Amino acid sequence: MKKTIIKIFIAGAVIISASSCKKFLTEESLTKVDESKVYSDIGLTETSLKGIYGSWKNIRTDEQGLITMMGTDELQQGAFQMKSDAAKGGLDRYDGNLNSLLNQLANQWNLRWPVINEAAKIIKGIDKPGIAPDSKEAHVLGEAYFIRGFVDFELAMYWGEIPIRDLNREKELGFRRQPLKDVWAFIINDLTRASTLCPQTNDPGRATSGAALAMLGKAYMSAPESTGLRSFDKAREAFEKMMGRYTLVPYKDLWDYAKGNTAESILEFQFSPVYPNNNKLQFQIGSRAVQAFFGDGCYYSGYDKVVPTIHAYETVANGGVWEDGDLRRNESIRYDFTYYGETPTLDPILWEDLGNDYDELKPHIKKYEDFRTDKHTDNKINNEWNSGKNIPVLRLADIKLCYAECLNELNKTGDAVAVVNEVRTRAWGGTLPNDKRWNVMSQVDFRTNIMEERIRELFAENWRRIDLIRTGKLLELVKARNKWTKQSGTIQPFNTLFPIPDSEMKLNPQITPQDQNPGYK
User: Fold this and answer.
1) By three-state DSSP, how is residue 330 classified?
2) What does the alpha-carbon distance between residue 147 and residue 115 come to, in Å, rounded to a whole number?
3) 6 contacts: CB under 8 Å, gap ≥ 6
């Protein structure tokens, strides 16, 4: 019975990739005949929950794990990728190719709905009056609320108005996009419920009350001002309730595959360098020049799907973000491609004919490199496609920086500076030089500086687009710092949101072309 449920959920996740939100959500589940048994047996319900976690973390693997990181001031697509795939290139050029027909965006939309729907089923099935606090049922329910709230948060940040999946109000809500205020009230309610129901500790890769409070704080910071729900004070309160449960660790430990789930980790997706639990990220983010020179058995080979922008890899002196002595720089970004004494060249890939745009030996993402896949190890993997480091979702340094933002917005800039200095002290190995210590600054200057600090701390951890959207800085900073956006000169204010996929509008009669986000066809 348990195996059957898992197989059915995985099949559903495959079906949705070619379907609309409505088609998936109205399709009779193959487990329908057993749902009453599933939700009366907490063991079966938890098995279903584990299946949801599996599908959720898979959104962060392979190329689909990079799509929402493209087109920012932090990451851009590699030159060969831009040349060979004009449609996907629209994610960085913000030109006419960024439209409702773009398959990569449809995939992002579609992959998230089965996760939301299955979480909604658990919530409807077991959220009954009198559920015992701190019981297994309460914990499973809290985790389902957390997952639905988190994934809805992402969808609302990227697309704005979205359908609300409350199965107790299905007839009322239907499958149409709901007003932003209702969407964000729903997200905040889910994360509030999760914060009271989730366990304080849990198995690695599963939600806790600390994770729920962290996301609740992010939701209060990110809710559009037009909803009336943005509250830096409520965000501050949520962060203060959970930060003391976690501790900053040496920055390099965060990227050591032998030290997963550190004391700083609030939530991270669990992977290993063994198929099918590998994350495949290195295959996408490594260097084509390295691959052509040394083969797939070099652990930093790859295909340049995304590379750092100049701003994200250069020093402050050269117009970038990095200050002398910041240990995060060389943990986050690979600058040297020398491999066992031999330095690769562009010679094997000159056929690409990229002119001055060759970037395969310019700086690359380093955080997710997994030496266990290298041909010189004893693992016998010999292929970077099997990279399997855990992927951070939430960690304490991120929340400390969010908390500092809240303090600044609450006119406590001095306190905010002190919190940022805690994170920066770790970045200099525990002793922060006086000339690197933040001092008194204006509220406006803090807003500018914290956005730079978040690149240094959270480079390539999938928060940048959300940071740019919630602060209203996407248009300004991407246009100035992303090479392809700057070249095209076509980014417009409406590009802050993604277009609703054409497939959704064709298959869901409750979302029509008239419901499309402004500016898109």
Assistant:
1) helix
2) 8
3) 47, 50, 51
Cα gap 373→217, rounded to integer Å: 37
Strand partners, 392: 268
**pLDDT score, position 99:** 98
**How many CA within 13 A on the CB side of residue 243?**
19
Q: Quick one: the chain helix, strand, coil %, rounded to 5?
A: 60, 5, 40
Cα(473)–Cα(301) distance, integer angstroms: 33
- CA dihedral sign of residues 379, 384, 385, 388: positive
First-residue to last-residue Cα distance in the chain? 45
Nearest-CA neighbor of 474 among 494, 502, 453? Answer: 494
Among residues 363, 368, 364, 382, which one has the least CA distance to residue 280? Answer: 368
What angle do the packed helices 103-126 and 136-159 form, to 10 degrees? Answer: 150
Burial class (CB in 10 A: 0-12, 13-18, 19+), 103: middle
Strand extents, DSSP E, 163-301: 265-269
pLDDT at 112 over 90: yes
Phi, psi of 379 (to 5 degrees): -75, -20
Nearest Cα to Cα of residue 452 among 481, 429, 484: 481
Q: How far apart are CA 26 and CA 23, in angstroms?
A: 5
Q: How far is CA 389 from CA 257, 385, 464, in A?
A: 6, 12, 21
Instruction: Give dist(CA 252, CA 249) in Å, integer.
Output: 8
pLDDT tens digits, 360-419: 999 999 999 999 999 999 999 999 999 999 999 999 999 999 999 999 999 999 999 999
* The predicted structure's pLDDT at residue 23: 61
Which of 193, 178, 174 is closest to 227 using CA atoms? 178
**Residue found by looking up tokens 């501050």 in the block:** 236
Structure tokens at 244: 């003391």
Residue among 106, 117, 205 at smallest CA distance from 158:
106
How many angstroms separate the CA atoms of 127 and 143, rounded?
Answer: 12
Question: What is the CA angle 408-71-85, rounded to 5?
Answer: 170
Residues 6+ apart with CB under 8 A from 318: none
Backbone angles phi, psi at 287, to 5 degrees: -100, 130
| Tokens at 366, concatenated | 């380093």
Strand, helix or coil for residue 322? strand
CA-closest candidate to residue 219, choices 251, 254, 186, 172: 186
In this structure, the number of other CB atoms found within 10 A of the CB of residue 274 comes to 12
**What is d(CA 334, CA 329) in angstroms, rounded to the nearest whole number?**
9
Mean pLDDT of all residues in the chain? Answer: 94
3-state class of 471 per DSSP?
coil
DSSP labels for 29-93? PTTGGGHHHHHH-HHHHHHHHHHHHHHHHHTTSTGGGTGGGSSSSSEE--HHHHHH-HHHHHHHH
